[in-house]
Amino acid sequence: MDAVNLPVGNLLAGQHALVTGGARGIGRAVALHLAQAGADVTVADLRPEDVESTARAVRQFGRRATAVGADVATDAGRRAIVEAANSGIGSIDILVNNAGIIQIVEPFAMTEADWDRMLGINAKAVFFLSQLVLPGMVERRRGSVISLASMAGKAATGVNSLHYNVSKAAVIAMTKTLAHAVAKSGVRVNCVCPGIIDTEMWRQIDREQGQRILGLAEGALIDQRIAQVPLGRAGTPEDVARVILFLASPLADYMTGQAINITGGTITY
Ligand SMILES: NC(=O)c1ccc[n+]([C@@H]2O[C@H](COP(=O)([O-])OP(=O)(O)OC[C@H]3O[C@@H](n4cnc5c(N)ncnc54)[C@H](O)[C@@H]3O)[C@@H](O)[C@H]2O)c1
Predict the structure, then answer these.
(1) What is the rounded distance in angstroms from the CA atom of residue 64 to the CA atom of residue 120?
(2) Average pLDDT over every residue of 61-74
(3) In a 3-state reduction of DSSP, which class is residue 74?
(4) Could you tell me if 81 and 122 lie in one domain?
(5) Does 2 have pLDDT greater than 80?
(6) Cα of 27 from ligand 1 centre, angstroms
(7) 57 and 189 both lie in a single domain
(8) pLDDT in tens, 114-154
(9) CA dist., res. 10 & res. 165, Å (int)
(10) Domain range for 204
């Protein structure tokens, strides 16, 4: 009989994952999924108390966890995160660039400060944190980077979040280039493109775009957008976390440079 090597249990045993923006939402779900699959996890976020709560939840799976309160948008913050990860648990095998922000602002009202803040957190920080972590992965010839892009980086969505859309297109572009830069070492670099995922970020969009700009009732904008999703519902943080777990794991050993949609079928390219 032919051998089938399908390591579905303890997929990430002995691995160390760093998850940014892990205090809540998608980042928290990712940290818990990776822990459940056997990984030790360093969780970083601006919110020190909430990030500690995620770390406690990781430990409940019997895994080691380090919590870091730091800002990915600054060089000092990124170095503090990597230093805490290395000294707390050890070298990093999986990097999930998840920290991100949204802002609703009409294109002609957008300031340079709005643009710089958005690109600084959502795009520049993803590249420079990857730049801190990838050389060690290449040296060890093992590792996986997964970044949070968005459907907004591919499709024309949200005229009032142009800079967000640009930042996510930048994540897709840097994923493809970085993937090729390190491919010979076996290190993989991918990103995911979620659609509407039920988190605080979507509640902010509902408040700022739905209620403030369009004058809709609370929740009405979300309902309108969900009505356009072929699978007929919003995604959950867990829907995204399962795909990231797959990409982080040996199950995806032959995938790199990809931008995977998690949109309930909303976009198909
Ligand atoms: N929710 C969605 O529909 C959706 C869709 C596509 C992509 N995404 C992306 O997924 C990622 C997570 O989104 P979410 O919906 O869970 O959002 P969220 O707002 O619930 O969580 C984001 C987390 O990132 C942290 N963070 C923000 N700026 C930071 C910084 N400078 N340094 C460190 N931490 C920082 C926040 O404190 C927060 O805990 C983001 O990159 C977002 O753009 C979300």
Answers:
(1) 30
(2) 97
(3) coil
(4) yes
(5) no
(6) 7
(7) yes
(8) 999 999 999 999 999 999 999 999 999 999 999 999 999 99
(9) 36
(10) 198-234
pLDDT of residue 3 exceeding 80: no
Please indicate whether residue 164 is annotated as part of the active site: yes
Q: Is residue 267 part of a domain?
A: no
Q: Per DSSP, which regions of the chain are E strands?
A: 16-20, 40-45, 65-69, 94-97, 144-148, 188-194, 259-262
Same domain, 116 and 105: yes
**The model scores a pTM over 0.85:** yes
Per the prediction, the chain carries an average pLDDT of 96
Domain assignment present for 268: no
CB atoms within 10 A of CB 99: 26
Amino acid residing at 260: I
- Residues 146, 124: Cα–Cα separation, whole Å: 15
Pocket of ligand 1 (CB under 6 A): 20-21, 23-27, 45-47, 71-73, 98-101, 121, 148, 150, 194, 196-197, 199-202
